[in-house]
User: Which sequence fits this backbone?
């Protein structure tokens, strides 16, 4: 079906994206958004801040005649901001100062100068080059200082934005709203099936067993979850194929969501619907679970906070974990994880409390308690439940798995 | 100078990387590692799991005759794992089952089956396709189940690994160690200058004022920091240019590090050197500061933990913030941030305690206390210092800035 969908290419420029100084996020963001709107992203090219390379990347992407080309980065005030010049070269036009763009830049520099108590007349000449656009293009209003660029070549709509993620995202969403009004995006359905507790190897055969020629399917794994994603044109016989495939997955694997909601969504919804609160007690995760529970707007409705009990003294003093229990079983044990959760519940008055204690590594592992061993506990009105896990990967991976396991435990306790 | 350096291209495959299901990390990881080893990464192409597209991306990357081509993803057991087949097409050879690779797969499947109590004879046929390699290539020992692929075309060394980040990273590092033994990497110096508290606009002119034709320079911004990076061939007159440029930056901007260390490094080193401990009290960041302080191995030497006081009740009960102070000034205030820090220091016995309280948004802003307003406080043996900030962007951005501001405050208090 993908032949009938609009196609998009993405080009991101910036040396900092290629030498690992900066985690590239704009490509993932715009790809996810385009995908949800029924546009197939066929390539994302990240290139150095180099006039030849960036021009070649634009030409390469335009050569495939996509319906949309989104460009991020290289619209700033420094010598390695080359996007306007390279886009002009790729389009075979010259650069010229655009009066509308110049007005936008002036407004924004005035705002920055006032806010930071700087001299406008000193800053403005530095920022002025941001008003140079390829001839025939129009400026996109800035979210920061630099305006974006809107252009066209043949069938391709071209939009370029600065690379600062907040600016890129804000400006793309405003463009997308305009494209939606024009009817640019197709009627596409996406179904996401989420599975927890089995390996990809066990899910793949379920996928292959069902007819799916009208579906675009994808499978991926992370944090102990296997996610299957179906995309298809709404209102065709594909609907029936999708329903059958979701049913087969649900029958054959521990599916916890088939309506798109993540474990974070399910936990947030269950807490809010029940008028319940949650608190945390974190050892090896050091605050990561709290950070994830408080990541979404409005989480103060159900998340109270808790205790980061990285040191054993804090487990004893703020969570009332008995010193004798720590001495007998060690901090990474079923007993201590359970006591941490119960202690956090008592200390905060929350309806539920989650605890995590584990060996995140790379040091501190023993034959009995290897790196990757994590206990998660959930203390609620009915009981305190503890689950043991042994997770792969490095320190960040083990911590991430621990957070995810704690959320899944809470999801099950709230459902039970 | 970049002409003389080895060049690398990177190709990453996976639909999940293009529709935003998964944050791509392998490209950033290998790019950073190659850059630190003196290899210039000229492009990273991310492509869909599509035989034509992936083959075209490999051909495009090979056409530039780079010294190195690193491929990530598409080496697994499912129908969208196409890397071996596409690489064979791009190299103009056929696929064949490699006996060494088959042995590796068998070993790893046996290990998985034992660990998960599954039936080896059921799993092995599903995994067997992972032993199919392009003719003339050799397997790279797996970090997970799937072996990698090592091949050559003309001047280009080609290495393909599975896309699971832990496997990709482990296998690349093992390849890189082998390449280092062969003398593949040049003698390159990298200097990183980090600046906190001014805008990119104010730093850029300092860069342009110095001779730098022997240097490769880059500048980028994030979390309130401006980072300037110089790369050059060691032991040439470039050394002098680099030294002069670092001196000019240090004279003209608030440079806090010119030896590569991050604010996280500086804080960790100062705490460890002084035999000091730190604790946290987090409101709007919900645990993110603790997560960052505990992200590195061995952080238990100085990080004790603390309190996530998302709800006001927890600020009062666990941090002894007076109810009257909360009522008079509100939770997001200089007074409460200071009291939170002092309270966390008292509750944990840490030498220093950091507090963060702010309006992360998108809701909850008022004209007096807009979204983005964050107070960070540091309570130490000498005093409690509070700093007010107003940060841009969305909820995640404001939280991230708040964490960064807190670390910079601690850095300054430890230095003072």
Assistant:
């Amino acid at each position: 079906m993908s032949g009938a969908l609009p196609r998009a290419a993405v080009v991101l420029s910036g040396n900092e994206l290629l030498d690992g100084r900066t985690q590239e996020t704009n490509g993932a963001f715009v790809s996810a958004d385009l995908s949800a709107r029924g546009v197939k992203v066929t390539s994302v090219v990240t290139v150095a801040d180099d006039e030849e390379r960036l021009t070649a990347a634009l030409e390469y992407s335009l050569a495939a005649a996509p319906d949309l080309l989104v460009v991020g980065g290289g619209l700033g005030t420094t010598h390695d901001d080359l996007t306007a010049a390279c886009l002009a070269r790729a389009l075979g036009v010259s650069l010229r100062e655009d009066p509308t763009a110049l007005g936008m830049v002036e407004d924004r520099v005035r705002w920055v100068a006032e806010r930071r108590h700087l001299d406008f007349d000193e800053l403005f000449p530095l920022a002025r080059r941001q008003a140079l656009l390829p001839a025939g293009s129009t400026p996109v209003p800035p979210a920061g200082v630099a305006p974006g660029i809107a252009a066209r070549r043949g069938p391709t709509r071209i939009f370029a934005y600065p690379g600062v993620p907040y600016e890129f995202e804000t400006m793309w969403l405003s463009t997308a709203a305009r494209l939606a009004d024009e009817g640019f995006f197709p009627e596409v359905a996406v179904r996401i099936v989420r599975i927890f507790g089995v390996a990809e190897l066990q899910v793949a055969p379920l996928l292959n067993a069902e007819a799916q020629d009208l579906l675009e399917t994808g499978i991926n794994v992370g944090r102990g979850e296997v996610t299957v994603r179906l995309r298809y044109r709404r209102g065709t016989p594909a609907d029936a194929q999708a329903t059958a495939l979701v049913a087969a997955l649900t029958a054959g694997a521990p599916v916890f969501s088939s309506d798109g909601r993540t474990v974070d969504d399910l936990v947030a919804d269950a807490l809010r619907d029940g008028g319940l609160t949650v608190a945390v007690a974190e050892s090896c995760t050091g605050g990561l679970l709290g950070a994830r529970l408080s990541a979404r707007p409005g989480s103060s409705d159900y998340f109270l906070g808790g205790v980061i009990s990285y040191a054993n003294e804090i487990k004893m003093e703020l969570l009332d974990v008995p010193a004798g229990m720590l001495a007998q079983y060690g901090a990474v044990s079923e007993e201590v994880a359970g006591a941490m959760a119960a202690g956090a519940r008592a200390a905060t008055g929350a309806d539920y409390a989650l605890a995590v204690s584990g060996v995140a590594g790379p040091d501190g592992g023993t034959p009995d308690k290897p790196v990757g061993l994590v206990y998660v506990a959930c203390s609620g009105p009915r009981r305190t439940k503890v689950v043991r896990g042994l997770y792969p990967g490095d320190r960040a991976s083990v911590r991430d798995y621990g957070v995810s396991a704690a959320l899944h435990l809470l999801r099950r306790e709230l459902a039970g």
Residues 214 and 236 of chain B are 9 Å apart (CA to CA).
